[in-house]
Amino acid sequence: MAVSSVINVQANPKIQEFGPGDSVKVNYRVREGERERIQAFQGVVIKRRGGGPGANFTVRRVTQNIGVERTFPFYSPRIESVEVVRRGKVRRARLYYLRGRFGRAARIKERGRY
Predict the structure, then answer these.
(1) What does the pLDDT look like over 75-86, one tens digit per residue?
(2) Is residue 12 a contact partner of residue 47, using CB atoms and an 8 Å limit?
């Protein structure tokens, strides 16, 4: 006997539309013991993956000459907001080549302002 349960998942309305190459600021709720605070993670989107509840995106930034990548689920209630800081002009969907570059070589041209 198969039991079918349908879970209705809503996309987070606080996430702006963005794509690979865009610089975004992700405000994420972090739990430390009993307390909860909002931590900002700002960097370049290097990939978007999937559709529906399993969708996620990866943001990369370089801090003190160390590259840090973090993957966020689109449907997570922990994401407070995602703001687009600047729109990047790129010609591919996965920007893994940025991992081998730093400084001026890792720059992405800016797309026209809206």
Answers:
(1) 888 999 999 999
(2) no
